[in-house]
Design goal:
By secondary structure, the protein is of the alpha+beta class. Helices cover 13% and strands 26% of the residues. The chain has two helices and four strands; from the N terminus they run H-H-E-E-E-E.
């Protein structure tokens, strides 16, 4: 949680080991995951308005400055 609070953007989180911050797919498309203690993950969505998108599509990780935590779960 301290790393999330200290991060300027989502890019900062994706570089921290063992966070493994990544976008989810399937029925969880639009959500992101950060590893916690195995097997749990912190799940969140981008809360920036407007939504930071790249020109070619997808989220602009450098533009994400706000997230909403939606749950902690074992997604496997």
């Amino acid at each position: 949680m301290m790393e999330l609070k200290a991060a300027q953007t989502l890019t900062d989180i994706s570089r921290l080991p063992p966070a493994r911050c990544h976008a989810l797919t399937g029925d969880r498309a639009g959500q992101f995951s950060v590893d916690l203690e195995h097997p749990y993950r912190l799940l969140f969505i981008v809360a920036d308005n407007p939504y930071p998108e790249q020109k070619c599509g997808g989220v602009d990780w450098d533009g994400v400055t706000e997230i909403e935590i939606i749950e902690i779960a074992d997604t496997h």
